[in-house]
Amino acid sequence: QVQLVESGGGLVQPGGSLRLSCAASGSRFRIYVMGWYRQAPGKQREVVAVITSGGSINYADSVKGRFTISRDNAKNTVYLQMNSLKPEDTAVYYCNVADTREIYWGQGTQVTVSS
């Protein structure tokens, strides 16, 4: 059974920063792709950033230049450093990982950017 544990969400003022982390455990197969998605109220879930085991990265245009995704392959952990946060970044952020057999989702962590 694969479990994803997310942490780092919270309330922050515009312009502030948060760092999200997601640790995957219990996988019997290599995890090659890890990423972050988010879902705001009334909207569909969207990709924020993804990173492969080789270090290839893709960002959504809306976060490019402000967010940084990274991973520790030895720990099967992915991070999302979020700087210069805007109110439109408010959403539930979900960790996503893919091994050679399955795709897994974290429980979600709330990020609220508000004055």
Describe this structure in words.
The protein has 115 residues and is an all-beta fold. Helix content is 0%, strand content 56%. The strands form two sheets. Strands 2, 4, 5, 6, 9, 10 and 11 form a seven-stranded mixed β-sheet that branches. A hairpin with a 4-residue loop joins strand 5 (46-52) and strand 6 (57-59). The radius of gyration is 14 Å and the shape is globular. The model has no long low-confidence stretch (mean pLDDT 95).
Low-confidence stretches: none
Q: Fraction of residues in helices?
A: under 10%
Q: What string gives the helices and strands in order?
A: EEEEEEEEEEE
What integer is the average pLDDT? 95
Strand content: over 45%
Largest sheet: 7 strands, mixed
- Rg estimate, integer Å: 14 Å
Instruction: Enumerate how many helices there are, as a single number.
Output: 0
The N- and C-terminal alpha carbons lie at a distance of 40 Å
- Helix-strand makeup class: mainly beta
Question: Based on DSSP secondary structure assignment, what is the total number of beta strands?
Answer: 11
Quick one: overall form? globular
